[in-house]
Amino acid sequence: MDFITNVLLITLILLIITISFYYIYKKDDTIPDKSKTSDVLSLEYLINGIKETFNQILNASFIELNLNKEESIKQEKRKAKLRKELRSCNCGDIGAKEYIKEYIKDLIQIKYHVNEQNIDQIIPFHNEKKLTPQDKFEILLYLYKKLHGLNALDILINTYELDKKYNPLSNNENPNDYTQIDTKEDGYYERDDIQYANSENVYMHLDNQYGFKIIAEQIEHAYSTEIGTLSFADKLEIVTQRIYQLYKGHGVIDEIRDMNIDGVSAGVSGLSNVFYHYTEDMLTTDFQSIPPADNSIWIFYHGKTIHLSFLGFGSRRELERVCKNIYRYDNPGQLSSAKGYIANEMKDGSRVIVVRPPLTENWAFFIRKFDSINKVDAKSLITDQDSDVVIETMKWLIKGCQVIGITGEQGCGKTTLLKALVEYINPVYTLRIQELIFELNLRKLYPYRNILSFKETSTVSGQDALDLQKKTDGTVTILGEVATAPVARWLVQLSQVASKFTIFTHHAKTTNNLIMSLRNALLQEGGFHNEMVAEEQVVDTVNFDIHMVKTAEGHRYIERITEILPIVDDEYLDKLTDKLETEYYRQMTRRHMFKTVDIITFENGRYVMKNMISKKTQRFIRYSLTKEEQKDFSQFLLKWRGCY
Fold it and tell me: Does 20 map to a domain?
């Protein structure tokens, strides 16, 4: 009896163990068990699983699988392709990015069993109240991208006027709903960290500053207006993008970076880690309400810098990850704490600058999207009243081979204007571009013109590239940006001996500042020791200054076109026979070797002709024109002669 009992007990125990192992290791492709569901249907689990799967593929040895030679070669090529695309996908290569996303989309369906029934547990598409502002924004951007491609963000902003200056009182808010602050001043009201001046209807913040800002409420309004029922295919694409951007992409700015906007930056507002470290005793409720630097994302859009206050990386580690990956195209070197910054370009032509502590208070990056500027003509760019006068003037200056500096602050449209003016350059002229980083991308805009760009590298100096450029049959030289003393020296050198004429951009605020800046660069880099001689070289080089301005509302226009004329008092100098006496007279009686004459100015919303181009310059322009163009130029002069 005892023997039979023991046998039954052993059999029962073995049966329980067998059943347990069956349920533990059972692989059901359709209905995962509860413990498995909690893991599979979380972004963290899927991201870790994708990482592990890619590592297994890249480290796999196909020899061990006993495949035939043809199949082994095929699998090795696939592995090499995957490795290449993983390295390129976060460097501005949209093709590589889409390849990796397709790979991820297949994996999460086949291996991790994401289907129509359970996808809402990854991102709660079915419940609008549970969606975060980031979720809603990414859904909106995806749907607009389906319709408008890389213009999606541009059209979304335009549709809901998200680029208007943020006013917290504009959303049907009433200052009477706020409690009065107990201060010495009357008429102020507050809600949380916002204060209002009721009498003047102005708004203030802790830093007394509101600019262009997109808030969560605006995104939620757009979402509730636009979004209906999403298909499984749409949900799958959105989930795939979220996994990709957290695994290999650039976090929350991954899709934003690809859009046709002027640029994007992060880590440039909020409280940095350094601030927190040194002000622990100041961390009151007010300070704690300010977002950290890693939740700081700004876009540069049509001349406006707009804060995406609803969006953030979520942690310092995520911001650092993006900063460490975003500059790596073409192996520019390592970003170290000893150097603190690195400037590079991305595969699509974007310029990226990354900075880190201790050079800066926290990690940050800046991306400028120069390739996002489509080919535009001057008429669509210069739109204020009487714009035809300024457009015609610039056309004849370009056709007349004048050396022109386009000046203005960052973001005022210098590069865009330069690209538009290239259209007026005689098509028989060859163009040579000298840049520190490829930014102009003129061959993309003018693919049938003879254009070649040069840049400085770690092994070829800018001067060497310039010397080589002189041997490439160049007629017109364009300097992307004259921002350093060596480049200023190149400008004078090119304009005097290497090309028919030169166009360049510069950050000078006035024409005098432009001349002085170039003069000082020659004194520093060009071997000049006399200020007057260096200034004379600059004045003989640069003929016109086209100055651009950007208003606080983002409107960009040409403030003035100024001609630079050398001063020569020949009548008096002829009477001086002694060379020392002549030089003494130059230095004692003249402050500068030039004078400036405004040809066109922008006044009260319209362009006004102030003075005609000098006679000497008119003769030079005529010399550079064809006979037919000379007739048109004469008509231009007659048309505007009586307008000033």
Answer: yes
Largest CA distance in the chain: 141
User: 3-class DSSP state for residue 295?
Assistant: helix
Token duo for residue 504: 């360049």
Q: Is residue 157 exposed (0-12), middle (13-18) or buried (19+ Cβ within 10 Å)? A: buried
- Is the pLDDT at 241 greater than 50, yes or no? yes
Domain count, the chain: 2
In a domain, 350, yes or no: no
Beta strands at 501-506 and 404-407: parallel, antiparallel or unpaired: parallel
Confidence of residue 492 (pLDDT cuts 50, 70, 90): confident
What is the CB neighbour count within 10 angstroms for residue 167? Answer: 13
167: in domain? no
For residue 47, what are the domain limits? 2-121
Inter-helix orientation angle 531-541/511-525, to 10°: 120
Which of 33-37, 63-67, 279-283, 542-546 has maximum average pLDDT? Answer: 542-546
Question: In the sheet that 297-301 helps form, which strands lie side by side, from edge to edge?
Answer: 212-214, 304-308, 297-301, 263-266, 364-368, 351-355, 341-345
Name the nearest CA neighbour of 504 among 580, 433, 601.
433
Q: What tokens does 265 get?
A: 């930056």
Q: What is the pLDDT of residue 22?
A: 47
From 121, 136, 169, the end of a domain falls on: 121
Stretch 339-348: mean pLDDT: 89
360's tokens = 């800066």
* Rounded alpha-carbon distances, angstroms, from residue 456 to 47, 370, 418, 436, 560: 40, 19, 21, 6, 33
Tell me: pLDDT of 435 over 50: yes
- pTM greater than the 0.85 cutoff: no
- Which residues, at least 6 apart from 244, have a Cβ–Cβ distance to it below 8 Å? 97, 100, 101, 104, 254
Of 114-128, 188-202, 275-289, 575-589, highest mean pLDDT: 114-128
Mean pLDDT of 495-499: 70
Could you tell me the two tokens for 515?
A: 């001349």
CA–CA gap between residue 12 and residue 98 (Å, rounded): 54
The span from the CA of 298 to the CA of 154, in Å, is 14
d(CA 499, CA 243): 52
Please report whether residue 99 resides in a domain: yes
Please determine, for residue 467, whether its predicted confidence score (pLDDT) is greater than 50.
Answer: yes
Query: In the structure, what pLDDT confidence band is assigned to residue 372 with cuts at 50, 70 and 90?
Result: low
Q: What residues does 298 pair with on adjacent strands?
A: 265, 307
CA atoms within 13 A on the CB side of 85: 20
Q: Which of 480, 481, 429, 434 is nearest to 460 (CA)?
A: 434
